[in-house]
Amino acid sequence: MELVPGTAIGYAKGARDVSWFVRQRVAGAYRKQRVGTPDDAVKADGTIVLSYTQAVKLATTMQLDDRKPLPRHYSDGLSLNQVFDDYLEQRQVTPGGRFNRVMPTSTAQMSKQVWGRHARNDIGSRLVTALDAKAMRKWHAKMASVAPTVRGRTQEFDATDPEQVRSRRATANRILTMAKAALTWARQHDVLPADMPDWWRNVSPFALGDDPVPRMLDKNEVSRLLSAASPDLRTLLQGALMTGARYGELCTMRVRDFDATHGTVNIRQSKTYKTLTQPLTPEGIALFDALTTGRKQDEPIFVRESGAAWARSDGAKPMAAAVRAAQLEGVTFKTTRATYGKLLLVATKDIELVAKALGHSDSRITRKHYAALLPSEVKAGIAMLPALGF
Questions:
Q1: Residue-wise pLDDT tens digits, 320-374
Q2: pLDDT at 132 over 60
Q3: Are residues 88 and 102 in contact, defined by beta-carbon separation less than 8 angstroms?
Q4: How many CB atoms lie within 10 A of CB 40?
Q5: pTM of structure
């Protein structure tokens, strides 16, 4: 559209770029220059993202042959969503992260779902060059105040309950870590401009204090839970109690992972991506021997009553039903792993051994959860104090 004789403004939308451009007649020829990004999806900032009025004003006051290129969004309007999606795609083929491993597809899919729930329509839709630490802190705080959802249904949230508040803050911290990791990856791979500061490094997670002691079952509670569980879930729970493996790790176990000769089973750990060769008790050997005898090597060890393998979301409803029937509180499938660690520590009094059996990188996390079960030197010392005659 011609604004004044010799100057026109245009709107262009291509596969990779949406832009305002100005066309001017200079020295008998036309020259065309991109001048900004339209505010179709992002609020105008007057510098890079321009409304129609701002674009018109700029077009009527500029001279193309005297002008330096205006700042533009990198990668033609790169949003935080695009940075995050590219980061996940690359992490599935390129080693990285804490353990310098390739991210499994299942982990990437879960991360994408979480991002979609908490960020995609919020901070993720904004352009990276329009973000700053203040915006990220505001988003981080907002996540911690929103009630959790399970399968799209909003759950009850009591903002005065310290445990619920801590849980929401822990969730917000995990998603903040994902965003910061994506931006750091973009910086390392020259996706961001060289003069753009690493402002996200100044956004700190919530301080959570010590982790709460995980729920653990005693022997009576184990019996009640197994009795209340359906036959296929009971077998899965028995496998967890014999190995300390997580639900997803049990689902991926194959018949070939059990070594009857040495009495061990291989656990492909979902967090470290390492394979843990776990020794079994005689009771555990008998269980796995019964589950694998006469079966093909590539078959899953644990299957549902229908014969199908357990999928990621299959265990939630049967587990919840078993917990209700057993009249237990605060119990999930993860409780079996904590119970395994507890039983092993009580039997051995060796925290380092428990850390190795659970596949922890070091014993710090193990001590956080299980130190209360160890004999207390302070308690023994206090018991030696003399009586005061009260």
A1: 999 999 999 989 999 999 899 888 888 888 888 888 888 877 667 777 777 666 6
A2: yes
A3: no
A4: 10
A5: 0.61
Residue found by looking up tokens 């994506």 in the block: 182
CA angle, corner 323, sides to 172 and 216, nearest 5? 65
Q: Tokens 């917990």 map to which residue?
A: 323
pLDDT higher than threshold 90 for residue 160: no
User: Would you state the CATH architecture of domain 219-373?
Assistant: Orthogonal Bundle (1.10)
The pLDDT of residue 180:
95
Query: Strand pairing partners for 13?
Result: 18
Q: How far apart are the first and last CA of the chain?
A: 96
Cα 227-347-268 angle, rounded to 5 deg: 70
**C-alpha to C-alpha distances, 35 to 56, 191, 217, nearest whole angstrom:** 10, 21, 65
Q: Where in the chain is the domain with CATH 1.10.443.10?
A: 219-373
Residue whose token pair is 């066309």: 23
Distance in angstroms (rounded) separating the CA atoms of residues 290 and 310: 18
The answer to whether 55 touches 35, Cβ cutoff 8 Å, is yes
CB atoms closer than 10 angstroms to residue 327: 10
Alpha-carbon span 326 to 363, nearest angstrom: 33
pLDDT at 69: 42
Full 3-state SS string of the chain? CEEECCEEEEEEECCCCEEEEEEEEECCEEEEEEEEEECCCCCCCCCCEECHHHHHHHHHCCCHHHCCCCCCCCCCCCEHHHHHHHHHHHHCCCCECCCCECCCHHHHHHHHHHHHHHCCCCHHHCEHHHCCHHHHHHHHHHHHHCCCEECCEECCCCCCCHHHHHHHHHHHHHHHHHHHHHHHHHHHCCCCCCCCCCHHHHCCCCCCCCCCCCCCCCHHHHHHHHHHCCHHHHHHHHHHHHHCCCHHHHHCCEHHHEECCCCEEEEECCCCCCEEEEECCHHHHHHHHHHHCCCCCCCECCECCCCCECCCCCCHHHHHHHHHHCCCCCCCCCHHHHHHHHHHHHHHCCHHHHHHHHCCCCCHHHHHHHHHHCCCHHHHHHCCCCCCCC
